[in-house]
Amino acid sequence: MTRRHKVLLLGSLYLAQGLPYGFFTQALPVLLRDAGYSLKAISATSLLFLPWALKFAVRRPPRHAQVVAVAVAVCGSGGGPGAVAN
Prior knowledge:
Blueprint: H1 3-34, H2 39-44, H3 50-54, H4 64-76
């Protein structure tokens, strides 16, 4: 792998990591406020930051089954800010 490929890969990973954080902290509150959600409901979206805030506490990488189980639980719960009452 050439140096150029390594730099491109590193930049791609950095972008992939930063996009969700930027969306949750900058764009989502604005979109929810435009949609008529209360400030209390919008402030609850700060809980979406917990995985980033607590990732240092994980001792080992999660197993594939755990990742799938969490993804199914989040998607199956009708999750997200829409589940929070106005």
